[in-house]
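Look over what follows to help learners.
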Amino acid sequence: MDPEAPGYRELDGDQVRQLINTEQVFEAYREARAELGDRFAGSMAWKTVSGGSYLYRARAGTWKSLGPRSAETEALHARFTEGRARARARSADLARRLDRMAAVSRAEQLGRMPVIAARILRALAESGLSRPIVATVGTNALFVYERMAGVQIAESRLETADIDLLYDARTSLKLVAPEVTANGVVGLLRKVDHSFEILRKGGFRAANRDGYIVDLITPAGKDPIRPSEPRRIGAEADDLVAAEITGLAWLVNSPKVTATVLDLRGYPAEMVVPDPRAFALHKAWLSSRDDRDPGKRRRDRAQAELVAALVARYLPHLAFDDPALRALPAALRREAPSLLPDDAPERAHDRLEPDW
C-alpha cells in the first residue's frame, strides 16, 4: 500500500470528543430504555374482584394478581408508578439530547453509515439479535474499524448499497429473541421499512423499494456434498433462508468487537463485527480465490491491506500472531506480513533494544 495515499484521514480533537460524548449519552439512553422495557414493562392497576380491591400487574398481555389492597401493595403500586414516570422522563431527556448531538455530529461531518443500515442495526439490538447471534460482515464492518482507529476511511472505499448479516446457527433463539423467532427477519426488517420484500421465495436476500439489500449468510456445512437443512431465524416458511458460504466459519469462530457508529443523520447505532485482524485475513483469502469476480478480488485485497494498516498503526495491541485467532488456518495467519505497509511500526515485543 502506498504510504502517501493511505485511504483514510485522522479525526481531529473536536471530532473525537463529539464521538465519545455521543457514545456515552447513547449508552445512558439504552440503559434507560432497557429499564423502562424490563423493570417497568406492562402496567399495574387496581381491580375489583368479588367486592374486594386487588393489585394486578400486566406483562405481555397477561394479568397477574399481586394481592389485596394493603399498605404493602399500595407502596408497591406507588413505587412502580413513580419509578416508571422517572424512567420515562429520563429516556425522553436523553432522546432530546441525542437529537441535539446529532445536529452537531452532522456539522462535524461525523455521520458515516447509511440511515437504513443504522435503523436495521438498532432493530437488531432491540430484538436481542445483535450479539452473539448476528454480526455484520463485509464492507459495513469498516465503519467499526475506522472508529476503533480514530480515522475516517475514504468514502470511495465504503460505498455499499447492502448489508450482510452473519448468522451463527448454533445458537438457539427461542429464549434470546422470541419475537424474531416468531415473525422472522423479514418481519423485523418491515418494522424498519414496510417495503422490504424477499427477492425470491426461500432466498437469502431482501430488498426495499430503494434497492437497499439485506443478505442473511451463514457458514457452509462441513460436508460439501450433503446439503444442510434450511437455516432460518424465524418460524415463518417465507422468511429468509441463510445462504451457506465457504470460509465464514472463520469469522463466526473469531473474536468479535462492538462499537458505536453514527449514521448520515448523526444518530448512533451499536454494531458487532469480526475482529479487524480476522476481517483482514479473510478478505486476503477472498482476494486469492480464482472463482471470485476480478473486481471484487481487487476490492477485497484493498480492504485487507487497509484494515491491516490501521491495526498496525493505531491498534498495536492487536497482534496477528495472537492465539485468539486460531480459528483461522495457520497458513492464512502467516500471510499477515504481506498485508502490512513497508513503514508499519515495529511491535514492542519485537524491538531489540529497551525503550530508552
Observations:
- The first strand starts at residue 8 and ends at 10.
- The chain has a mean pLDDT of 88.
- Residues 71-107 form the longest helix (37 residues).
